[in-house]
Amino acid sequence: xxxxxxxxxxxxxxxxxxxxxxxxxxxxxxxxxxxxxxxxxxxxxxxxxxxxxxxxxxxxxxxxxxxxxxxxxxxxxxxxxxxxxxxxxxxxxxxxxxxxxxxxxxxxxxxxxxxxxxxxxxxxxxxxxxxxxxxxxxxxxxxxxxxxxxxxxxxxxxxxxxxxxxxxxxxxxxxxxxxxxxxxxxxxxxxxxxxxxxxxxxxxxxxxxxxxxxxxxxxxxxxxxxxxxxxxxxx
Length: 235
Prior knowledge:
This protein is an alpha/beta fold. The protein is built from 7 helices and 7 strands. 46% of the residues are buried.
């Protein structure tokens, strides 16, 4: 059964891919809950709110802070969420190779990319249960694929995404009884602050493709690792 997309919750909604998801779902006529760490500084997001009227709700949510995530869940109270999109993520500094590891930076990446996504899934499980779509998607990276790693490097970022993949796979198994579908998606190499100017995909292209894939997802896809075009990625 295709995913019912009515209300979408997006983390990391103030920039990059998260902001583009907000923009495209609003254009599609959906209701969007946009979560970010500092809404008062999210200028592009607030400009979208000026045009979206009541269909866009902006909430403060810091994925690295358990209390902040719990507070956002309380603010949203009994609201159903059809699709949860965990877009918040960081890449960390350069030189993430053996002999040049910044362990403080590594811990920070794990807090955002791995623990942050799990915090959000846990806090909003009940909201997903109340929704018709019951779909949680976490944005991962092809750099989190163990099978595809042939160059090494980027240890902190790669491990944070590989750990995310495993955490979401566990969530897919554990939440199956509650009829919630969980999976990870690789958005491709995208021209954002994180992806850089040389990336071949625009945020608009990546998100448009992922939205088409998301619209067709169902329980049979739970636990999957998909590319932005819907093709399976190697773990």
